[in-house]
UniProtKB/TrEMBL annotation:
It comes from Shewanella amazonensis (strain ATCC BAA-1098 / SB2B). Transmembrane segments: none annotated. Gene3D superfamilies: P-loop containing nucleotide triphosphate hydrolases. The lineage of its organism: Bacteria, Pseudomonadati, Pseudomonadota, Gammaproteobacteria, Alteromonadales. Residues 22-309 form the KAP NTPase domain. This is p-loop ATPase-like protein.
Length: 715
């Protein structure tokens, strides 16, 4: 990230160039300011709003004056250093005298400086009363210095301001140099100080051969004068200033060039590559709204200072366009920016801490319309239409439909219309339970240890967000890395206690189910995969991936027409040729049969899931397995584990519901019932709730919950 701006004006040198093309204007103004040593004092003003570059133009003027042959003496006065309004006159004269350093006429310069210092001392003796010319002596001022009527009358001559000033005028004419006095930032002074600066220029320091360049915001200065009882403030300024010059207008193209430079300095990589169509959207929002809000270099610098700070902590997790626009709001409409943090529901229809909200987002946004509008309309009138435009683009729900030409899956697009992205943008961090987009990209491309990262997701509780971001990004990864990432997911999750906790849990209507998300992710990847056959058959090499290949096999059954479906999209999908599809199913069912007969698979949390595909692929192989088990000791327990988990509901979690119709063509159901009755009647052993529920369902054909073996109700 580049460095932050400290609001320094340009100098016109190569390292601080004039990008707003004001050099010619400044050179002409410098020519006007250089008057002849014998000419009467002239005052010019450089006027413009804060932040439009008055000080930068002054620097260009000084550079031009310095380049002139036998250039004038430049006196810069900073009224900020005076400390209080009453000291401004004396302070100015002291600073003025100290800068009369004339190399080829040092004696004359020193004499004039001494006379100026003596002149300045008089303003200690006299009370500088607003509204009264400074050399009008007051009894209070006189007697404070001379001590009363008992002092010699000759002492009063020392208070002869006019005489002193005339002597200085003669010395300056003999000195034979032009003097340019520059007083900048008058609009940053208090009203009292601003008023005194204007008065001292006209009444105290209108020396021959001297020109003044005053820099101020005319609106502020007029207001300061009005506070001192001057009704026609602009006419008053006209009496003091003979030449009033406004800053040149800043062209949009020139300011855009500055913005382009700032964008280039933000980062050495493309900031709009993280999210699709972000560059296009940035250009649209800039030219439609931003360029009409950011009107001067100071606002531009402050915007990019804010953006640089936010970007350093959120880059890659929120689309750049939205971060940029939020920084514009932070600089130009702080009240709106604050309301986004305090009341995000006004804009996205959700609070940041709403873990479960049932109101429609559109209704929440509409309900808060008046509150939102009252905040927006308090912005300056010339800004309101552009602020509304930016807000409409950032938060499409403000328009009612929520439609956006740049995509409506706001989370996937990294846009702050998603409250998750808005939270990151406004809090400058990834909240607890969230994954970072940049980490997801690193996970997909393998630059971090994939399995370690997945285990961290489980331990730190951001699995749900992990899957959301994987859905957004997996198609962007190259296919080799995406395949490796999926295999890492299978390895870490399939037999983990974390996944088992979800399989045994009571699921609400909107509950997160990690296994279902793994399969959605897998199917999304297969759909866009070029070499589907290689990937699908490669998964068969690992027996621990049997739950995944079970779901793949079920999808192949649909594609081959062996399972009916009402979804036309599934019918149209063809992952493998019919011959390869049948080969895949045979290989998979052989592997399942082998794993079941060898032992361990029946104890897997995925056993029932695999079974329900297995018997659809090959009833013959299923019969072979059941025929062997039903005659083995503890064989009924293996069968129960395999067929028991039929479903899950929001009442009491997973349940079993077994009927004779479902199993009679695969095994001797009467024999199964006899064995189940024996197991339930055996008081010498303690059965798990799971087995109790399955055996009870075998006997009755009714629904039982696996968690506590209670009987379920029919709905």
């Amino acid at each position: 990230m580049g460095s932050y701006h400290n609001d320094q004006p340009i100098t016109g040198e190569s390292e601080s160039p004039d990008l707003l093309r004001r050099e010619a204007f400044s050179e002409h103004l410098a020519t006007v300011l250089r008057i002849a040593p014998s000419d009467d004092c002239m005052t010019a003003s450089l006027e413009g709003e804060w932040g439009y570059g008055k000080t930068s133009v002054i620097n260009l003027v000084k550079k031009s004056l310095g380049n002139q042959e036998n250039g004038p003496v430049i006196v810069e006065y900073n009224p900020w250093l005076a400390g209080k309004a009453e000291a401004l006159v004396q302070d100015f004269l002291v600073q003025f005298s100290s800068q009369l350093n004339i190399p080829d006429r040092p004696k004359e310069g020193l004499k004039a400086a001494k006379e100026l210092l003596a002149y300045s001392e008089l303003f200690n003796a006299m009370k500088f009363i607003p509204g009264v010319e400074p050399w009008a002596s007051t009894v209070q001022g006189v007697f404070k210095v001379v001590g009363g009527a008992t002092k010699k009358i000759s002492k009063l001559k020392e208070l002869d301001l006019i005489g002193r000033k005339n002597k200085i005028n003669d010395l300056l004419k003999k000195l034979g140099v032009s003097i340019v006095v520059i007083i900048d930032d008058i609009d940053r002074l208090t009203p009292d100080e601003a008023f005194q600066v204007v008065r001292l220029v006209k009444a105290v320091a209108d020396f021959p051969g001297t020109s003044f360049l005053l820099s101020f915001d005319p609106t502020y200065l007029a207001s300061s004068l009005e506070k001192h009882g001057i009704e026609n403030s602009n006419q008053y300024i006209d009496k003091v200033v003979q030449l009033r010059i406004s800053l040149p207008l800043i062209a949009h193209n020139d300011l855009q060039k500055l913005a382009d430079i700032e964008l280039q300095n933000l980062s050495d990589k493309s900031l709009t590559d993280s999210f699709e169509r972000d560059q296009e959207r940035l250009s649209y929002l800039y030219h439609s709204y931003v360029k009409y809000l950011i009107r001067n270099p100071r606002e531009l610098k402050r915007t990019f200072n804010h953006l640089r700070f936010v970007l350093s902590q959120t880059e890659g997790n929120v689309c750049f366009t939205d971060l940029y626009c939020l920084s514009v709001l932070a600089i130009k409409a702080q009240e709106i920016y604050h309301s986004l943090k305090e009341s995000p529901e006004y804009y996205v229809g959700r609070k940041f801490d709403d873990s479960l909200a049932f109101d429609k987002r559109e209704e929440v946004v509409e309900k808060n319309k008046d509150k939102r509008d009252s905040i927006i309309t308090r912005a300056p009138g010339k800004d309101v239409v552009y602020l509304k435009g930016i807000l409409k683009e950032l938060f499409p729900l403000l328009e009612g439909s929520g439609y956006s030409m740049y995509g409506s899956d706001y989370d996937q697009c990294g846009r702050v219309a998603s409250e998750k992205r808005l939270y990151i943008a406004l809090h400058y961090q990834i909240p607890t339970g969230f994954a970072s987009d940049t980490d997801i990209v690193s996970f997909l491309n393998g630059s971090i240890n994939r399995e370690e990262y997945l285990r961290r997701a489980i331990s730190e509780g951001f699995v749900e967000r992990l899957f959301e971001l994987l859905h957004h990004n997996i198609e962007k990864a190259n296919q080799e890395n995406a395949a490796l990432s999926l295999k890492a997911l299978y390895t870490v999750f399939l037999d983990s206690p974390y996944l088992k906790s979800f399989e045994d849990a009571v699921h609400g209507f909107f509950g997160f189910e990690p296994y279902r998300n793994i399969m959605w992710l897998t199917f999304a990847f297969i759909k866009v995969l070029d070499e589907k056959e290689q990937f699908l058959f490669d998964l068969l090499q690992n027996p621990s991936f049997l739950p995944i290949t079970a779901d793949i096999s079920r999808r192949l059954l649909v594609q081959l027409g062996r399972i009916e479906t009402d979804d036309p999209r599934l019918k149209e999908e063809q992952w493998l040729s019919p011959e390869k599809g049948e080969e895949y199913l045979k290989t998979w069912s052989d592997m399942v049969a082998s794993q079941l007969l060898d032992g361990g698979l029946a104890d897997s949390i995925h056993a029932s899931h695999i079974y329900f595909v297995f018997y659809r692929v090959s009833k013959e192989k299923t019969r072979q397995v059941f025929s062997k088990w039903i005659n083995e000791e503890l064989g009924i327990e293996k069968i129960a584990k395999l067929v028991g988990r039929c479903g899950s509901d929001s009442t009491n979690g997973p349940y079993t519901e077994i009927s004779e119709d479902s199993l009679s063509e695969l095994l001797d159901y009467q024999r199964l019932k006899e064995l189940a009755d024996v197991e339930l009647s055996n008081t010498s052993q303690t059965l798990s709730n799971y087995l109790k529920a399955v055996y009870s369902s075998v006997l009755t054909g009714e629904k039982y919950y696996l968690n506590d073996a209670t009987k379920g109700e029919k709905f």
